Amino acid sequence: PPTPDAPARHDPHGRAGLPEHLERRGVVHDLTPAEQLCPCCGRVRACIGEQTAERLDCDPARYFVRRTARKSYACHHCDPATVPPEERLRTAGPRTVGPIPKGGCGPGLLAAVLTAKFAGHVPLNRQLGIIARSGVSVPAATLCDWVRQAAGLLTPPSGWMHRRVLAAPVAWSDDTRVRYQVPGRKATAGGHLWGVIGDATAPYATCHFTPAYTAAAGPAVCLKDYRGFAHADCLAPYAPLFAAGAGHVACWAHARRKLLDAGDGARPGVEL
Q1: Roughly how many angstroms between the first and final C-alpha of the chain, as a whole number?
Q2: Mean residue pLDDT across the chain
Q3: What confidence tier does 177 reach under pLDDT thresholds 50, 70, 90?
Q4: pLDDT in tens, 98-150
Q5: What order of strands is seen across the sheet that includes strand 205-210?
Q6: Do residues 178 and 192 make contact, with C-beta atoms less than 8 angstroms apart?
Q7: Residue 6: what pLDDT?
Q8: Dist. CA 267–CA 272, nearest whole Å
Q9: How far is the C-alpha of 231 from the C-alpha of 253, rounded, in Å?
Q10: Per-residue pLDDT for 3 more than 90?
Q11: Contacts of residue 132, Cβ cutoff 8 Å, sequence gap at least 6
Q12: Mean pLDDT of the 172-183 span
């Protein structure tokens, strides 16, 4: 056996331990009173220990109805003819119930839909099937409208994150092509998402969508007035940003590609 000071062995093929913060639900298998009797002498056998095993498990998603009641009160002593309603009447709670005005979703369901779509890459039509398997019917147009209105709810925190990123001394940026739908058009159009990521002082990732592929539509907006060190490639739309004072930290991946294209003679450069 290893000494107390020796590091614990790590089996790369072994099963990792389950986190302690997870709830433990116990299942105990025990002998019946009849089975506890010794077949030899007929007396009760003594329990000498137990063998335990842990398996990760989960409960399927459960949907429930959140019923909100707002109690209203009125003063019966004041004359309605002389006292305005806003003074005689008072209703508890906020006017808007739920994250979306007049919407049929609660905060937990809306958060689950957004997380599944944007973090888990589960399309909305597949989520409709997942919800339907629980016996709940949600129209596709309704689910799309929830996502659309959630964009407005997330605008304040998104703006705050972007301002934090622009205040960081170092940022990373790149763009990627995306296809998007235009109302009244059968074919999708081509646009671009400009991503900006902050450093350890602002560990956030923000995106700016543009239908065009120009400096005025892209970096001039998502990196406006940035004067830190910007990691980016040599794409032309970034040129005005660097000319205005941002420090250009070129992309090692692009440089490495050229060295690889140069063949064996550039091997020292690749290793460096």
Answers
A1: 44
A2: 90
A3: very high
A4: 899 888 999 999 999 999 999 999 999 999 999 999 899 999 999 999 999 99
A5: 205-210, 189-198, 170-180, 229-231, 247-249
A6: yes
A7: 47
A8: 9
A9: 11
A10: no
A11: 138
A12: 92
Nearby residues of 270 by Cβ (< 8 Å), 6 or more positions away: 256, 259, 260
Q: Which long-range contacts (CB under 8 A, 24 or more apart) does 104-108 make?
A: 104/142, 105/146, 106/66
What is the length of the chain?
A: 272
For residue 230, give the H/E element and its range.
strand 229-231
H or E stretch covering 127: helix 124-132
Instruction: Give phi and psi for 219, each to the nearest 5.
Output: -60, -30
**What type of residue is 120?**
G
How would you classify residue 119: left for phi > 0, otherwise alpha for psi between -120 and 50, otherwise beta?
A: alpha
- Rounded CA separation 97/104 (Å): 9
Higher-pLDDT residue of 228 and 271 is 228
Confidence at residue 253, expressed as pLDDT on a 0 to 100 scale = 85
The letter for the amino acid at 158 is: S
Asked if 97 and 68 touch (Cβ cutoff 8 Å), the reply is yes
Single-letter amino acid code for the residue at 59 = D
Retrieve residue 139's tokens.
């129209």
Task: Tokens for 2, please give them.
Answer: 């290893």
